[in-house]
Amino acid sequence: MTSGDGGAAGSASCGPEPGGHPFVVAHRGASADRPEHTLAAYELALKEGADGVECDVRLTRDGHLVCLHDRKVDRTSNGTGVVSEMTLEQLRELDYGAWHPSRRNDTGPAATALLTLDELISLVLDWNRPVKLFIETKHPVRYGALVESKVLDLLHRYGIASPASADLARAVVMSFSAAAVWRIRRAAPMLPTVLLGDTSRFLGGGAATTVGATAVGPSIMTLRQHPELVDRAAAQGRALYCWTVDHFEDVGYCRDLGVAWVATNHPGRTKTWLQDGLTGAGR
Ligand code: G3P
Ligand code: CA
Predict the structure, then answer these.
(1) Which ligand is closest in space to the CA of residue 57?
(2) For 24-65, what is each residue's pLDDT tens digit?
(3) Nearest protein CA to atom 2 of ligand 1, as residue
(4) Which residues, other chains included, contact 106 with Cβ-Cβ below 8 Å and sequence gap of 6+?
(5) What tens digit of pLDDT does each residue of 105-127 get?
(6) Which of 102, 146, 195, 275 could cross-link to 213 by cystine, CB 3.0-4.6 Å?
(7) CATH H superfamily, domain 7-275
């Protein structure tokens, strides 16, 4: 998978070209410097040159896909409640930036309002570079398979559910749930998918093949314990997406292993480190 822009890491489908470096995915946006999953976080990530942006999605009570990680809004907003029990209108009444240290920069209420997946897709597709959107569906959830169905509806509406190739895809769907990945694969066979996992036994076993995932996604901790996951994935024609890669040493580790995508809360500095060849300058 690549960003399709002929950028620094070339166009190999399973990883960067020899001598290239991983693509950088902004995890929940530039979420170290701005409140996660807000317009402020994604705009900063795009300005900083991220090759991709990641988001978690959940369904509201009235069937809207919103970009929120947790089951409840309590940690990331000034309200309380369970996302799946709230309407879009109720969720829009809350502010999603007050908790974050960057509040002192005062980005304004629109920048820290609730973000829907629809709004995030528009932002990414309208950007002046072909950035990829990594959409993670959370499970188990009250609405089950309806989440993937709604994600696909939206991707179809934007004309990005059936890319000509994984390289040209503008959206990737990910999940820790193998069933969720399978639902996407079955309904949209050309759409790239990432099977996320906590253990090498799961990711290195047959699950990714069974569900037809085009990439596997271990954490950096799992990858450090099982670096063979990269070669095993490549042997099966799969790319590797690693999360959450925030430390200098971990970025170098992923680059040297040939990881295709690194998800980080610090997209700007990670791009700079990679472009500088991880010399340590500007660290
Ligand atoms: O990008 C994958 C990663 O986001 C999975 O963990 O909990 O941050 O969604 P989590
Ligand atoms: Ca996620």
Answers:
(1) 2
(2) 999 999 999 999 999 999 999 999 999 999 999 999 999 999
(3) 243
(4) none
(5) 656 788 999 999 999 999 999 99
(6) 195
(7) Phosphatidylinositol (PI) phosphodiesterase (3.20.20.190)
